[in-house]
Amino acid sequence: ALTIGIVGLPNVGKSTLFNALTKNQVLAANYPFATIEPNVGVVELPDARLDRLAEIHGSAKILPATVSFVDIAGIVQGASEGEGLGNQFLANIREADAIAQVVRGFADGDVVHVAGAVNPASDLETINTELALADMQTLEKAITRLEKEVRGKKADPAVLAAAEAAKAALDAGTLLSAADVDLTLLKEFGLMTAKPMLFVFNVDEAVLTDDARKAELAALVAPATAVFLDAKVESELVDLEPDEALELLQSLGQDESGLDQLARIGFDTLGLQTYLTAGPKESRAWTIRKGWTAPQAAGVIHTDFEKGFIKAEVVSFDDLDAAGTMADAKAKGRVRIEGKDYTMVDGDVVEFRFNV
Ligand code: GDP
Predict the structure, then answer these.
(1) How far apart are CA 27 and CA 216, in angstroms?
(2) Collapsing DSSP states into helix, strand and coil, what is residue 198?
(3) Which of 5, 141, 231, 239 is the 20 to 30 A CA-CA neighbour of 303?
(4) Which CATH number does the domain housing residue 298 bear?
């Protein structure tokens, strides 16, 4: 499964956030085959459409899609030179598919800030610099090796050219996610600044309810997405009954928990989307990549479904919701038959037909 690595300076609230995530972890009963490692938190992607589908189909169970977060040790200035947890830390980030960078925005005199003061802009700079330095080292080594291999006709010159272009972009102060470089050629190097990134500002109530301040912080990381939450509040929310949790959230001017926002935005940052299936047994969201075709989507349920794909019966959730029953949606001509070239759309409710 794809994972999002949680990074940030020490004392910014990463552990507090991760603990809230694991307390909120999906029940093993729902996902009996999932092996969950101690530093991985698997959370459900909230999706109100599943409740409605279960109502329409009388489903016994609801199975949302999930998002996995990996807790990665804190980064400190000098991490790229092996300071602190250095190398192990870098190896862990390399394996993540996207990065959630936690930035401290809460003021608390009792909690020491590593750099002496709470300053989100300079913290972001520190982390991004460490990630960029680590990528430069990776690329320098790769370029030296690739030069030899290209001379011996053992490597593709296009990969060497891409590595050189990436190195030049970093030297000029551009993170690879924003650089004009063919990153698909450089996948094997696990370059960190090439990964999609989202930002979690761990703030207190004063900031949560201050839209102008949130806009300022969001501008520091744009065009990437910012999530605002109070990690301490999140860790309390997961212990409350749903109605009590909602009451607490509303008292803070929020209508969705920070963890739910993080799951939603994390999923999107990973380039994922869902499609839905529904029946008496279960209403379920399945995870696919954006842009996948119907047979690829069917393959997520079972590889045989992809091989034996014939067609898909598709109705958009909104049409089914409005019709109220499958029979009615059919009568209204809202249920389409799609072939193997169909590109899945978020919210498609699907039944596949296949040969076995
Ligand atoms: P980490 O080093 O990034 O994992 O940070 P921790 O999660 O261990 O948090 C460091 C300290 O800050 C702990 O004492 C937390 O209780 C405290 N803390 C974390 N989040 C918040 C927050 O949102 N508000 C306040 N006031 N304190 C927080």
Answers:
(1) 38
(2) strand
(3) 5
(4) 3.10.20.30
**Interface predicted TM-score (ipTM):** 0.94
Which atom, in ligand 1's list, is nearest to the CA of 8? 3
Residue 73 CA to residue 102 CA, distance in Å, equals 12
329 within domain boundaries? yes
pTM of this structure: 0.86
Exposure of 74 in the CB half-sphere (CA atoms within 13 A): 16
Quote the number of domains for the chain: 1
Q: Are 292 and 63 in contact (CB under 8 A)?
A: no
In a domain, 309, yes or no: yes
**Nearest Cα residue to 1 out of 34, 39, 23:** 34
**Residue type present at position 262:** L
CA of 280 to the centre of ligand 1 (A): 44
In sequence order, the 6+-apart residues with CB closer than 8 A to the CB of 268 are: 225
Q: What is the pLDDT of residues 242-301, one digit of tens each?
A: 899 999 999 998 989 999 999 999 999 999 999 999 999 999 999 999 999 999 999 999
